[in-house]
Input
Amino acid sequence: MVYLGIDGGGSKTAFLIEDENGRILDRAETGPSNWVSAGKEEAKRNITAGIQQLKTIPDVVGCGFAGAGRPEGFRFFKDCLTALLPEAQIFVETDAFISYIGAIGLEPGVLLIAGTGSIAIGRRTDGSMIRVGGWGPMFSDEGSGFWIGREAIQAALRANDAGTTPEFVSFVCKALHLDAIVDISASWKSGALTVRSVASLAAMLFDQYPAEPAKRILKDAALHLCAMSETVTAKVGIPDCRRSIAGSVGSHSVMKQLVRQHGSGKEFDPPRQSPEHGAIIWAQSLLNR
Output
């Protein structure tokens, strides 16, 4: 039996082929496959390119995609993979779900994900899943890369109005390829500024920490992430369950330090496995029911 695990998100799509003994047979990586942000055509193109790179045809496919939680998204990904691999058994879930299974396993626990967006995922003893946050960059995703970047832009605009910290304003302009910070609204409206480019400012703030305003913004981000983690832990109902943190923001050493400092004090464990391997674990568990 050959298994294919797929982790499809807003920046990349990872493919992992394993045999029934867990031996890695092949890997591939392509561009984004979030049908909402990338569009259906690009998502389908990147999924197709990844499948075509693999030298082994899988018998079973476990996959998690950003946007698969919506009925339309679920159908899109299932139809796309069925057309590419008509003989395979295909199981579709969200990218957050398979990230949880990869990080924690099938046991109860909590996974805090903070990358471009943010979400906290929990699993109870009965196998039911819980989510807190992750409702998109406009209204949610507190503590995420986009949230941090938006706070940095707001700080730069306030500094520009007050005529203070010109160095910080200059840093933000340079990172976003703006001639002046007051051009930010026009850049967003034209599409030159995107969710991903705003989120990229998080790396700049990590480099500037502990200088202000990076220190304040990152502390506030950590407080939001701690609140999400504590809420989902309470819903899981096991205070000492395994907790893990993932994502480009959450796994950064500065953010891990701040989350530990402003949270319960309990360490977050690193993820045990990759999301694409988590997709395989999940598919195997379904077959063994």
